[in-house]
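Q: How would the C-alpha cells look for this protein?
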Amino acid sequence: MWVQLRCGLEPKTLAALAVILVAAAVFAGIHFWSAGPEGVEAPDVVGEAAHGPGPVTDPDADMAATGRPEPSPGPAAVPGAGGQIVVDVSGKVRNPGLQRLPSGARVDDALDAAGGARPGTDLAGLNRARVLMDGEQIVVGAPPAPAPASGAGGPAAAGGGTGPVSLNTATADQLEGLPGVGPVLAQHIVEYRTEHGGFRSVDELREVNGIGDRRFADLRPRVQP
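A: Here is the predicted structure in C-alpha cell form.
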C-alpha cells in the first residue's frame, strides 16, 4: 500500500511487480545454494599396493612351485672330492691293465677292479690298505724286497741282494741295506712315502731330503716303486 500510494501504481501493476520480485528472490536463492561448496567423499586408495613394498616370498614355497631352488648369492658349493684316478695293475691278476678308480681308492680296490689276484698269488708284500695316486703302477705277485744280510758285510752288503728294493713296501732296515743309505736317510725316505702316499716312480727319490744326483745314480738301478 505504501508503494502504491508513494508511486501511484495501479493494483495490477503492483501485483506484477511483486511477482517479479518474488521470482527474482527465488532465482537468487537457487543460484546461491547451487554455488555453495559441496562435500566430496575421499577416493579409495588405489595405488597403495603399487607403491608399497613387494610381497614377501618364501624360498621353500618358490622351490615347491617351480621345482628348482632359488640361486644362492654366495659362492658355489665346493665340488666333492670325487674325480677319478688311473692306475696300472699288472702281474698276477685276472684282468691286468689300466683301471679307473674314484679318488681316495686303495690298493685293495685296484685289485678288485682288476678281477682279483690269481689263485696262489702271495700278497704278503703288498700293502692293500695304501691310498693310491694317479698314474701309479701296482705289480701284483712281485718278489718281496730282500731282507738285510747279516755278517761281515754289514747293512751295506744287503744292497747286493738279487732284485730291486721296493720303495713303497721296504722297511727302514731294508732301505739301510742300499748303498749310501743310513738310518737318517732311510727315515727320510719312509717319511716322504707316508706324506705323499707312496712313490709313483723312482725319479721321485730326487725330492727326498739328502739324495743328490750322485747318490740317486747309485740307487736308481737298485730300487723300484
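The chain has a mean pLDDT of 74.

The beta strands are 84-91, 97-102, 137-140, 165-166, 223-224.

Upvote if useful.
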